[in-house]
Design brief:
Pfam families: UxuA. Catalyzes the dehydration of D-mannonate. Pathway: Carbohydrate metabolism; pentose and glucuronate interconversion. There is one protein chain. The protein has 14 helices and 12 strands. The chain is α/β, with parallel strands linked by helices. Helix content is 41%, strand content 14%. Helix 12 runs parallel beside helix 13. The protein is globular and about 60 Å long. The longest helix has 22 residues, at 211-232. The strands form 2 sheets. An 8-stranded parallel barrel has the order 1-2-3-4-7-8-9-12. Strands 5-6-11-10 form a 4-stranded antiparallel beta sheet.
Length: 399
């Protein structure tokens, strides 16, 4: 297995030398500056690759091994195979990535918003901060800020009353922060920032898209792009929904073991794989993470290893330390190591620590929400320790 690190490009607040210092060897990145739906040119991809892989004298080499993500335009999610120009542009970006020698591409298929949190700096019992999804606060946003039509049908009278009380207690600053957290696109998001009116308009465009239709659109997308991925020798890895359940009255179709099984049955190509995210899948108590890893082992080419902790209301959760919370990371890594040992050289699983706590010096400076250096370094060190204990230390790139 190889140690990855998500890097947001030359303007990121973590430098490539700092990535080397934490022990990571593989970069997970994207051309975040390119608008969603625009084609990534070969020249732009190769320039970013050269920035990452040109090793200064005396430094350890880094490899750009995973693209996370090439965003899928909204039209594809709403109309599937009918969005031919958008799919063709996505394939053109895939070709640029493959020609630059990058063999793993992560993507998601979450409509309107992708990963969603209500709080970016929830104070934990150590004094470090974490990201949190609070169900009651989310309900307050949906019912009283977004004012989604028909939202009340998704909440019991008691839940509606608690949401009203929660909203009434919010000041203007908290309302603005919550709106920004949910509607303005979190770091690495593959959806566009939205105003509240634009958010409502976008939801209205999905009024006829139920789970069956969204899944069909995903299958149509995969049927179009997987032959290209096969020819280019690229592995496509679908990230789970985060949180793994419907939001805003919208369906989500990559939340459970059965969701992935349906997609792999529909498009059985070996290029059709998964990004195994323990944090996203682990939010649901009915997702048995070691079983999922064992069942889909050959499909896992990229892993996000993090843990979440469900609270008293299990719909509320926060990001825990990597070896705490509701994820049995030792059991998970035992399954991934077993699969990794079966693979040919060059086909090893790339993993990265994900969503570390904001702690120590990062509490005193601006950091990318979910991606502080120190918290992720702690997580990576803990994961590396498990791999050594399992007798399968991470690989290192050739100098």
């Amino acid at each position: 297995m190889r140690q990855g690190w998500r890097w947001f490009g030359p303007r990121a607040n973590v430098t490539l030398d700092e990535v080397r210092q934490v022990g990571a060897t593989d970069i997970v990145s994207a051309l975040h500056e390119v608008p969603i739906g625009a084609v990534w040119t070969r020249e732009a991809v190769e320039a970013r690759r050269d920035m990452i892989e040109t090793t200064p004298a005396g430094r350890a080499p880094l490899l750009w091994s995973v693209v996370e993500s090439i965003p899928i335009p909204d039209a594809v999610k709403r109309t599937g195979g009918a969005a031919k120009p958008e799919i063709e542009a996505w394939i053109a970006s895939l070709e640029s990535v493959a020609k630059a020698g990058i063999g793993i591409v992560c993507y998601n298929f979450m409509p309107v918003v992708d990963w969603c949190r209500t709080d970016l700096d929830f104070v934990t019992d150590t004094g470090a901060t974490a990201m949190r999804f609070d169900f009651e606060t989310f309900a307050a946003f949906e019912l009283h800020i977004l004012q989604r039509q028909g939202a009340e049908r998704d909440y019991t009278p008691k839940e509606q009353a608690r949401a009203r009380t929660r909203f009434d207690a919010m000041g203007e600053g908290e309302v603005a922060d919550l709106t920004r957290n949910i509607a303005s696109a979190l770091p690495g998001s593959t959806t566009e920032p939205m105003t509240i009116p634009a958010f409502r308009d976008k939801l209205d465009q999905y009024r006829d898209v139920d789970a069956a239709r969204l899944r069909r659109h995903l299958v149509e997308f995969l049927e179009a792009v997987t032959p290209a991925a096969e020819a280019l020798k690229v592995k496509l890895t679908l990230h789970p929904d985060d949180p793994p359940r419907p939001l805003f009255g919208l369906p989500r179709v990559a939340s459970t073991q059965d969701d992935y099984a349906a997609l792999f049955d529909a498009v059985p190509s070996a290029a059709n794989g998964m990004c195994y995210c323990t944090g996203s899948l682990g939010v649901r108590a009915d997702n048995d993470l070691p079983v999922i890893a064992r069942r889909f082992a050959s499909r896992i080419h990229f892993a996000h290893l993090r843990a979440t902790k469900r609270e008293a209301d299990p719909r509320t959760f926060h990001e825990s330390a990597h070896l705490e919370g509701d994820v049995d990371m030792v059991a998970v890594l035992t399954e991934l190591v077993a699969e990794d040992r079966r693979r040919d050289k060059g086909a090893t699983i790339v993993f990265r620590s994900d969503h570390g706590h904001r702690m120590l010096d990062d509490l005193r400076k601006d950091v990318t929400p979910g991606y502080p250096a120190t918290g992720r370094m702690r997580g990576l060190a803990e994961l590396r320790g498990i791999l050594h204990a399992l007798g399968h230390p991470p690989e290192r790139p050739a100098a």
